[in-house]
Amino acid sequence: MLAFYHTPMSCSTASHIALEECAETYSRHRIRLYKPDEHAAYKRDVNPLGTVPALQTERGLLTENLAIMCYLADRNPQLQLLPLDNFERAQCLSFLSWIASSAQIARRQSRAPQRFTDDEAAYPGLSSSGAIKFKACVARIEERLANSSWIMGEQYTVADGYALVVYHWALLDNLDMTLYPHFSAHLQRMLQRPAVRRALVEEKCRLLELE
C-alpha cells in the first residue's frame, strides 16, 4: 500500500488530489514541518530532504509533486490524468514545472524573504518583488483558462490540482479573486469533482466555503 506524507493546504495538496482521483489505497501521514521534533523524525525515518509531499511506494520513496503526480498518472493510464499525445504531455509537464519553479518560488519570496537573504534591510524589497511575481503567475493562469475549462483545454489533468493550490495561496495573500473570473470558475468546477472534495475535506480546506 502507498503511504503519503503531506502538510494540509501546502503544495502537497496537488499530489493529494491526484491520489484521490486515482482512487488509490493509501495511508495518510500529516507532517507538521513547523514542529522541530516532528520534522527531525520525518527527515530521519522517511524523507532525508525533509520536504512534502513524499510518497512511499512498493519500490521506494518518491518526492516532489511533479514526480509523484506523473507516477500516479502513469500508474492509472485509463484515467488520462496526463495527455496521451506526446507534445500535449510535454506541455502539461511544462506547466507543472512552471508552478514548482516559478509560482511556488515567487510566493515563498513574498511570504518568507528570509529564505533568500540574510540582509534584513532587503526583506521589504524582496517581499514586494515576490508578491508582484506571484500576482503575475495568477494572471498567467487566468489567461490560460480564458478559453478552456481545464488547464490543458477540455481534458482534466493533474495540472488542475496544482492550479487549485495556487488559487488557495492567492486567497491567503488577499488577492481580489473577482479580478480573475476564469480562474474562479475553474475553482468551482474543481469543487464539483468528488475526488477533489475528498482531499479538501480531509485537509479541512476553507476553499469548500466558496461553493
Explained architecture:
With 211 residues, the chain is an alpha+beta fold. The protein has 2 domains: 2-79, Glutaredoxin (3-Layer(aba) Sandwich), CATH 3.40.30.10; 86-193, Glutathione S-transferase Yfyf (Class Pi), Chain A, domain 2. It is 54% helix and 9% strand. It has a 4-stranded mixed β-sheet with strand order 2-1-3-4, with helices on one face. 35% of the residues are buried. The mean pLDDT is 93.
Concise overview:
The chain has 211 residues and is of the alpha+beta class. The chain has helices at 13-21, 36-45, 65-75, 86-111, 123-144, 158-172, 181-191, 194-202, and strands at 2-6, 26-30, 54-57, 60-63. It contains 8 helices and 4 strands; from the N terminus they run βαβαββαααααα.
List the helices and strands and how they pair.
Blueprint: E1 2-6, H1 13-21, E2 26-30, H2 36-45, E3 54-57, E4 60-63, H3 65-75, H4 86-111, H5 123-144, H6 158-172, H7 181-191, H8 194-202
Parallel strand pairs: 1-2
Antiparallel strand pairs: 1-3, 3-4
Strand order, largest beta sheet: 2-1-3-4
Indicate the structural class: alpha+beta
Give the DSSP E fraction (strand runs of 2 or more residues).
5-15%
> Could you say how many structural domains there are in total?
2
CATH architectural label of the largest domain = Up-down Bundle
The average pLDDT value, as a whole number, equals: 93
General form? globular
H/E element order: EHEHEEHHHHHH
The residue ranges in which pLDDT falls below 50 over 5 or more consecutive positions are none
Radius of gyration: 17 Å
Q: The biggest beta sheet, please?
A: 4 strands, mixed
Overall CATH class of the largest domain: Mainly Alpha
User: What is the number of E strands?
Assistant: 4
SS field, number of helical segments: 8
Q: What is the CATH topology of the largest domain?
A: Glutathione S-transferase Yfyf (Class Pi), Chain A, domain 2
Distance between the termini: 33 Å
The residue fraction in helices comes out at: 40-55%
